[in-house]
């Protein structure tokens, strides 16, 4: 089964983080990709947390997109914050934040950031384990 898509908007506020996590799990179980639900929902949670933490006040919503195509799950989080693009960095031992993209990097097959007008989209690829013709 290939070619499925899902998109949902969430308000830029703290209670959207667990809502995004639950949404990803529900969609993936429905798509029979429950084996990816833990990793994908954690990634969604980290990216949503980044939006709520860094993009607050720049727009009312962020968008969470899921696409299943040719053995790959693509998860995207888009917001309208355009001043800083996320970068992978190693926080010092005494920093209490800044590890979200390290988690994303550890779980993802590939990930990146692309600009949009306004803002950016952070995308993540996870292998589904099945390639379709």
UniProtKB/TrEMBL annotation:
InterPro entries linked: Anti-sigma-factor_SerPK, HATPase_C_sf, HATPase_dom
Signal peptide as annotated in the record: none
Residue ranges annotated for the Histidine kinase/HSP90-like ATPase domain, each copy included: 14-125
Domain of life: Bacteria
Keywords: Kinase, Serine/threonine-protein kinase, Transferase
Keyword Transferase recorded: yes
CDD domains listed in its UniProt record: HATPase_RsbW-like (cd16936)
GO terms, molecular function: protein serine/threonine kinase activity
Protein name as annotated: Histidine kinase/HSP90-like ATPase domain-containing protein
């Amino acid at each position: 089964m290939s070619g499925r898509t899902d998109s949902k908007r969430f308000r830029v506020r703290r209670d959207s983080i667990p809502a995004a996590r639950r949404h990803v799990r529900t969609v993936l179980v429905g798509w029979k990709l429950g084996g990816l639900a833990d990793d994908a929902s954690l990634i969604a949670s980290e990216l949503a947390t980044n939006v709520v933490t860094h993009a607050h006040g720049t727009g009312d919503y962020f968008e969470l997109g899921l696409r299943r195509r040719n053995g790959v799950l693509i998860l995207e989080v888009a917001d309208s914050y355009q001043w800083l693009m996320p970068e992978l960095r190693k926080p010092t031992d005494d920093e209490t934040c800044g590890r979200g993209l390290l988690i994303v990097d550890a779980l993802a097959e590939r990930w990146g950031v692309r600009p949009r007008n306004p803002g950016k989209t952070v995308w993540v690829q996870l292998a589904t384990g099945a390639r379709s013709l």
